[in-house]
Specification:
Aldehyde Dehydrogenase, Chain A, domain 2; 15 helices; Aldehyde Dehydrogenase, Chain A, domain 1; 459 residues; 42% helix; six-stranded mixed β-sheet; 2 domains; alpha/beta; seven-stranded mixed β-sheet
């Protein structure tokens, strides 16, 4: 018999129950944080090379179990197993990068007077709470956990309640590589995350997820003094210039809007296309949408939110060119959807839909599209497709986001960092800069020693 507080996870493909996991109690939350506080000094005192070796061992364990993790992730979120496995291996690669970068993370010396030396030493912040999402849970968690662990922090990890089996399996496998208590995983709903964020013994709350939760975490850390490290999604724009091939641009738009059923933090959420190529672009985008096999969203509740964005846009004058209807049958499926005649006031243009929806607005010039793309409370990423170097320069200098992509909706060098702005969050995610976020710098001033003078006692 299951407890009423248990998480009941159901398949987004057919609605069947996958299993139950307990929700951590207040006592268990407090106990996990206290354990982390107790073991962290010993972990911080472990030589950096040994911490890196432990992280490398944890990465190896996840690589060995990549197929198992991918299957569990598919069951919980509906993400195709091939794509899920790619996400797991991306996380493994991130852990391996931090296993190399962590031991060489260093401070710097400061020029002072001749008889003194100043230097800055990075120290672990202490106890890190990592609250991770359901859409790419292993890859995201590996970034936060890897950077925190390799720099000497102890971690309490709570995966999303939409994929707790995946998060618990990952945490259990990784924990084998570390001393007891250095990495703990708790399962539970948003209330568990809120308790962790509000605990006065926590030093960092790292969260990847929704904006509303991010705001509540900021309020909690303002009271406790913990550092908030947030990536709260975005409303990423795609601006399509007049000089690009409409078919290629449509393929890029479809890739950005429909990959993982639009459930990526950097999915294309709103499209501004130059009127000179708009008709050809829309025709090609509809053709692309037909080629994307419908995938389930994470659950029926989320599908309802996605469809509400579409239905409201249609009621306000938008036109559905393809998709836009909730299919019959079990599961949380939703088709690739293309909307045109969209206006800036529509919720589908103002907020993150997080589904396979491509809302298109036709604009009279590249400058007009860029100006409208700028008007948004988020600041995660944006893409421009253009053959003009001047327009590319104008775009990356103008768009108030952490990442600007030119002529490719996805991609980037390994180890690249991102720093969201405004409602999309605060602090660096990934890259060497995340090691800086997980440490604090201590300035040490060494003055010249003055020996005690000997006092003469006479003859």
């Amino acid at each position: 018999m299951t407890d009423m507080r248990d998480l009941d996870i159901r398949s987004p493909r057919d609605g069947r129950s996958i299993g139950h996991l307990p929700t951590a109690t207040e006592e268990e939350v407090a106990g996990a944080v206290l354990t982390a506080r107790q073991v962290q000094p010993g972990w911080a005192a472990t030589p950096a090379a040994e911490r890196g070796a432990a992280l490398r061992q944890g990465a190896g364990v996840l690589r060995t179990h990549a197929d198992e993790l991918a299957k569990v992730l598919e069951q919980e979120t509906g993400r195709p197993v091939e794509s899920a496995r790619e996400g797991v291996l991306a996380g493994v690669s991130t852990l391996e990068q931090y296993a190399e970068l962590g031991p060489v993370h260093r401070g710097r010396s400061l020029l002072g007077s001749w008889d003194a030396t100043d230097f800055m030493v990075p120290e672990p912040r202490g106890v890190v709470v990592a609250l991770t999402p359901w859409n790419d849970p292993v890859a995201v968690a590996c970034g936060l956990l890897g950077a925190a662990l390799v720099t000497g922090n102890a971690v309490v990890h709570k995966p999303s309640e939409r994929c707790p089996h995946t998060g618990l399996l990952m945490g259990t496998l990784m924990a084998e590589a570390f001393p007891d208590g250095v990495l703990q995983t708790l399962t539970g709903d948003g209330a568990v995350g809120a308790r962790l964020a509000a605990d006065h013994h926590v030093d960092v709350v790292a969260h990847v997820g929704g904006t509303a939760t991010g705001r509540s975490i900021l309020a909690a850390t303002a009271r406790t003094g913990a550092k908030a490290l947030l990536e709260n999604g975005g409303n990423d724009a795609l601006v399509v210039d007049a000089d690009v091939d409409p078919g290629w641009a449509a393929a890029q738009a479809a890739l950005g809007a429909f990959t993982n059923a639009g459930q990526l933090c950097t999915s294309v959420e709103r499209i501004f296309v130059h009127e000179a190529i708009a008709d050809e672009f829309l025709h090609a985008l509809v053709g692309e949408a037909r080629n994307w096999v419908a995938q389930p969203l994470v659950d029926v509740e989320h599908r309802g939110l996605v469809h509400a964005h579409v239905a409201e846009a249609v009621a306000d004058g938008a036109e559905v060119l393809i998709g836009g209807e909730v299919p019959d049958g079990p599961g949380a499926y939703y088709p690739a959807t293309v909307l045109t005649r969209c206006t800036p006031s529509m919720r589908v243009m103002r907020q993150e839909t997080f589904g396979p929806v491509a809302p298109v607005r036709v604009v009279g010039s590249f400058e007009e599209g860029l100006a409208e793309a700028v008007v948004d409370e988020h600041g995660l990423a944006a893409t421009v497709l253009t053959g003009s170097m001047a327009h590319a320069q104008q775009a990356w200098r103008t768009l108030p986001v952490g990442t600007v992509k030119v002529n490719a909706v996805f991609g980037g060098a390994p180890g690249g960092a991102a720093q969201p702005r405004r409602m999309s969050g605060t602090g660096f995610g990934y890259g060497p800069e995340l090691l800086d976020e997980m440490t604090s710098m201590k300035v040490v001033h060494l003055g010249q020693f003055q020996p005690r003078r000997k006092v003469s006692t006479g003859s």
